[in-house]
């Protein structure tokens, strides 16, 4: 495929700087791009790479000077990059068509129009799969589970009983939706299991990464709000409520009954205790350990998590500990010497 710079700009709503008839045949990173490819720059910190790139054109914001390089000028270069990638590299996976002969579909399940079910898909009694949904091989859909329209479930996804999945949801391989919450009561030296009889509701336009585990509620619902995107290897415990348009990055763990409000970002490997609230628009930095409520629009980091500026100062002081420890030892030695001299003087005076 090839497009002129003018054609690309028209498709993504950008403005042109340079030759509108420049022919673009692909997309690449700023360091790897060749003269017939377009690249992008969204962070001014990397502007020095502009002088070195061999790209034919670049996607940038209006405040970045592109030297003599042709460009598509736009307010959100990363978003425009995503759209141009979709133009040059449409999804190439083999999409199942119809219901495969080896799919196991209960007679009481309801399958919508233009649904594609790959081999060894299992849909139990009362399961509902909406129009245009694609389910890849080996996926399990439990009794009474409802999946909306235009969803995409990759291979080996497990969705337990009585789960609700909205429209336009993407779930990647290995994800488990509706596993039992981790509920046990100590009794007589043993841990007695508490039945987990709630469910999970995943709203519209959610994307769930590979090997994500979302536990069902103990009594009520675990909820994933519309537009939220969850990276790989995330654990979401029972009765967690996640708002709309959140970003939850790899290896995050969220304990039971915590509320994550709208537009929250939780970075990789952060851990959240149970029964707290992460306020709207806040950011939890990578590896933070959150032990109490986070106010709206707050940025927290560290363990225990605290406002980021405070955490940075604390960390800066911690880096000085080896030097401080050395000074303390030196002072202790001087004090011992002074005490020894003082003792000698006292003995002489006697």
Can you tell me about this structure?
The chain is built from 4 helices and 39 strands. It has an 11-stranded mixed β-sheet, with helices on one face. It folds into 3 domains: 3-88, MurE/MurF, N-terminal domain (Udp-n-acetylmuramoylalanyl-d-glutamate--2,6- Diaminopimelate Ligase, Chain: A, domain 1, 3-Layer(aba) Sandwich); 104-309, UDP N-Acetylglucosamine Acyltransferase, domain 1; 320-350. By secondary structure, the chain is of the alpha/beta class. A hairpin with a 2-residue loop joins strand 21 and strand 22. It is flat and about 105 Å long.
Outline the secondary-structure elements:
Blueprint: E1 3-4, H1 5-12, E2 15-17, E3 23-24, E4 26-27, E5 37-40, E6 57-60, E7 70-73, H2 77-88, E8 104-105, E9 110-111, E10 116-117, E11 122-123, E12 128-129, E13 134-135, E14 140-141, E15 146-147, E16 152-153, E17 158-159, E18 164-165, E19 170-171, E20 176-179, E21 184-187, E22 190-193, E23 199-202, E24 207-208, E25 213-215, E26 221-224, E27 229-230, E28 235-236, E29 241-242, E30 247-248, E31 253-254, E32 259-260, E33 265-266, E34 271-272, E35 277-278, E36 283-284, E37 289-290, E38 299-301, E39 306-307, H3 308-319, H4 321-349
Parallel strand pairs: 4-5, 5-6, 6-7, 8-11, 9-12, 10-13, 11-14, 12-15, 13-16, 14-17, 15-18, 16-19, 17-20, 18-23, 19-24, 20-25, 23-26, 24-27, 25-28, 26-29, 27-30, 28-31, 29-32, 30-33, 31-34, 32-35, 33-36, 34-37, 36-38
Antiparallel strand pairs: 1-3, 2-7, 21-22, 38-39
User: Can you say what the CATH homologous superfamily of the largest domain is?
Assistant: Hexapeptide repeat proteins
CATH-defined topology of the largest domain: UDP N-Acetylglucosamine Acyltransferase, domain 1
Largest sheet: 11 strands, mixed
Q: What is the domain tally?
A: 3
Radius of gyration: 28 Å
Secondary structure category: alpha/beta
Low-confidence segments, ≥5 residues, pLDDT <50?
none
Q: Note the total helix count.
A: 4
Q: Beta-strand percentage?
A: 25-35%
pLDDT averaged over residues: 94
Strand element count: 39
Q: Cα distance, first to last residue?
A: 101 Å
Helix content estimate: 10-25%
Q: Identify the CATH class of the largest domain.
A: Mainly Beta
């Amino acid at each position: 495929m090839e497009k002129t710079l003018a054609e690309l700009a028209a498709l993504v709503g950008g403005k042109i700087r340079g030759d509108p008839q420049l022919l673009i045949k692909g997309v690449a990173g700023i360091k790897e791009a060749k003269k017939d490819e377009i690249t992008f720059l969204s962070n001014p910190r990397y502007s020095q790479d502009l002088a070195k790139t061999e790209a034919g054109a670049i996607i940038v914001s209006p405040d970045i000077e592109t030297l003599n390089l042709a460009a598509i000028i736009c307010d959100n270069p990363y978003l425009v990059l995503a759209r141009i990638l979709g133009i040059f590299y449409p999804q190439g996976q083999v999409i199942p068509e119809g219901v495969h002969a080896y799919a196991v579909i209960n007679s009481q399940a309801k399958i919508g129009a233009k649904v594609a079910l790959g081999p060894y898909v299992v849909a139990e009694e009362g399961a509902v799969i909406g129009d245009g949904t694609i389910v890849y091989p080996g996926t399990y859909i439990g009794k009474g589970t409802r999946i909306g329209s235009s969803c995409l479930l990759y291979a080996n996804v497990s969705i337990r009983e009585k789960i609700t999945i909205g429209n336009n949801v993407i779930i990647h391989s290995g994800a488990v939706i509706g596993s039992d919450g981790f509920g046990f009561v100590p009794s007589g030296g043993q841990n007695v299991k508490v039945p987990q009889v709630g469910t999970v509701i995943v709203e519209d336009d959610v994307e769930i990464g590979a090997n994500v585990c979302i536990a069902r509620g103990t009594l009520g619902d675990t909820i994933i709000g519309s537009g939220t995107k969850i990276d790989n290897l995330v654990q979401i415990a029972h009765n967690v409520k996640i708002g709309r348009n959140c970003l939850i990055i790899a290896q995050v763990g969220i304990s039971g009954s915590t509320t994550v409000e709208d537009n929250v970002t939780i970075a990789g490997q952060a851990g959240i205790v149970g029964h707290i609230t992460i306020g709207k628009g806040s950011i939890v930095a990578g590896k933070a350990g959150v032990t109490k409520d986070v106010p709206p629009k707050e940025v927290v980091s560290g363990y225990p998590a605290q406002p980021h500026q405070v955490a940075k100062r604390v960390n800066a002081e911690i880096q000085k500990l080896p030097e401080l420890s050395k000074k303390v030892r030196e002072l202790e030695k001087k004090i011992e010497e002074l005490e020894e001299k003082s003792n000698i003087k006292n003995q002489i005076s006697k």
